[in-house]
Design goal:
This protein has 362 residues and is an alpha+beta fold. It is built from 18 helices and eight strands. It folds into two domains: 206 residues, Endonuclease III, domain 1 (Orthogonal Bundle); 137 residues, Nucleoside Triphosphate Pyrophosphohydrolase, CATH 3.90.79.10. Helix 9 crosses helix 11. The structure holds iron/sulfur cluster. Iron/sulfur cluster binds next to helix 9 and helix 12.
Length: 362
C-alpha cells in the first residue's frame, strides 16, 4: 500500500470534525486557515464562528470598519493577519469581482496569502492538486522520508514542495492535504509521538534511526529581543486617554494607553524623569495610584515586560489633549486593545483604581 492510501485510511479513522471541513465555501476556508495559523484549533473555533457571523461574506468584510475587524480579532494575536484579511477583501472586491480566484497562482496574488493558505484554499475549495505545507506537514515528511533540508530555507521549502507533489493524491487532493495536516497535528506530534501506534512505523526513517528529536531540521533561529513597555493609565475625572498604534511595529492599529518605552526595566523614580513623562504631565498636579510589577508577555520574536502605572490628574496637558483620544474609562472595552492590556484591565488592582468606587476606597 502506498503512502497516500495509508494516510487517507488513517484520516478516515481519526479525522477531526471541524466546521470548515463541511464547507466548500472558499471564503470560510480562507478565514479558517488564516485563523488557525499560529492558533490552536480549540482557541480558533470560537473566533472562526464569530468572524463568519460578523462578516458573512467577502463584501461584508471589505465594507467593514478596520476597528471592527480588529475588535473581533482581539486576543488572537498576530494582528497583521486581521489587517491583511481586511485589505485582501477589498482587493478581491476591486480586482476579482468579489470572488476568490480559483487558481493557485492567482490566489498567491491576494494580500497576505502565502503558499500554505493558497494551497489550502486551492485544494480544499477548488480540488486542485497543490500542496498545503505547514509546520505539521514539514515534520511528518521530514521524519518519514528522512528529509534533512531545513524548511526554513528556500532550498528546503522547494524540496518539500517537490516531495509533496510526488505523493499527493491527484483525485482527492483535499482529503490528502487534510489528512497530512491532521496526522501532523494529532499523531506525529513534535514531542514524544506514539510511534508504536503509527501506521508508518515500519518505514519511518526517523523512528527506525532514532532521529525523532532531530527532525525536522531547525534552520537559523531569529534572535528575540527584550522590550520594556511602561503604560500610563491616566485617570482624569471618569475619563482616560488612548491612541491608535501606527504601522511598522507590533499591534498596528490596536489602541493603547500613553506609552513610555525604556531600554531597561525602570522603577517609577526613573520613569518620571523621562522626557515623555514631562510631555504627558508638564507641571500639572498628579497622584500615582498604582505601579504594577512587570508582566512578561512572549511574542514570536520579542519578549515584552509591561508595566502599568495608574495616575490621577486634575488637568490634562496640551500634549495629551492634542495627541490622544479622551474616552470614558468603561468605553475602553469598545476598542481593540492588545491582550496584555486587556488582561491587566480585567484584574485587580486596576479595577479598584479605575472604577468610580475605587476613589472612595482609597
Ligand atoms: S513512526 Fe513516529 S515519527 Fe514516524 S511518522 Fe509515525 S509518529 Fe511520526
Amino acid at each position: 500500500m502506498d503512502f497516500k492510501n495509508i494516510i487517507i485510511i488513517w484520516y478516515n479513522q481519526n479525522r477531526r470534525d471541524l466546521p470548515w471541513r463541511n464547507t466548500e465555501n472558499p471564503y470560510y476556508i480562507w478565514i479558517a486557515e488564516v485563523i488557525l495559523q499560529q492558533t490552536r484549533v480549540a482557541q480558533g473555533l470560537g473566533y472562526y464562528n464569530r468572524f463568519i457571523s460578523t462578516f458573512p461574506t467577502i463584501k461584508d468584510l471589505a465594507n467593514a470598519d478596520i476597528d471592527k475587524v480588529m475588535k473581533v480579532w482581539q486576543g488572537l494575536g498576530y494582528y497583521t493577519r486581521a489587517r491583511n484579511l481586511h485589505g485582501a477583501a477589498k482587493q478581491i472586491m476591486a480586482e476579482y469581482n468579489g470572488l476568490l480566484p480559483t487558481s493557485y497562482q492567482e490566489l498567491l496574488k491576494i494580500k497576505g496569502l502565502g503558499p500554505y493558505s493558497a494551497g489550502a484554499i486551492a485544494s480544499f475549495a477548488f480540488k486542485l492538486a497543490v500542496p498545503a505545507i505547514d509546520g505539521n506537514v514539514y515534520r511528518v515528511l521530514s521524519r518519514i522520508f528522512g528529509v534533512f533540508a531545513s524548511p526554513e530555507t528556500s532550498a528546503g521549502k522547494k524540496e518539500f514542495y517537490t516531495l509533496t507533489m510526488e505523493l499527493i493524491d491527484k483525485r482527492h487532493p483535499d482529503t490528502f492535504n487534510q489528512a497530512l495536516l491532521d496526522f501532523g497535528a494529532m499523531q506525529c506530534v513534535p514531542r514524544s509521538p506514539n510511534c508504536l501506534a503509527c501506521p508508518f512505523n515500519d518505514i519511518c526513517y526517523a523512528y527506525r534511526n532514532n532521529l525523532i528529536n532531530q527532525l525536522p531540521l531547525k534552520g537559523k533561529r531569529i534572535a528575540t529581543r527584550d522590550r520594556f513597555l511602561n503604560y500610563i493609565i491616566i485617570r482624569y475625572k471618569d475619563s482616560t486617554f488612548i491612541q491608535k498604534r501606527e504601522a511598522g511595529d507590533i499591534w498596528t492599529s490596536l489602541y493603547e494607553f500613553p506609552l513610555i518605552e525604556t531600554a531597561n526595566q525602570v522603577e517609577i523614580d526613573l520613569l518620571i524623569i523621562e522626557p515623555l513623562w514631562s510631555e504627558f504631565f508638564g507641571k500639572e498636579r498628579l497622584k500615582i495610584l498604582h505601579s504594577s510589577q512587570p508582566i512578561k508577555h512572549i511574542l514570536s520574536h520579542q519578549t515584552l515586560y509591561t508595566k502599568f502605572i495608574i495616575v490621577e490628574i486634575d488637568k490634562p496637558t496640551y500634549y495629551l489633549k492634542t495627541n490622544y483620544l479622551k474616552i470614558p474609562i468603561p468605553n475602553i472595552q469598545d476598542y481593540s486593545i492588545p491582550k496584555v492590556i486587556d488582561n491587566f484591565l480585567a484584574a485587580e488592582p486596576s479595577e479598584k483604581y479605575l472604577r468610580n468606587k475605587g476613589r472612595s476606597e482609597k
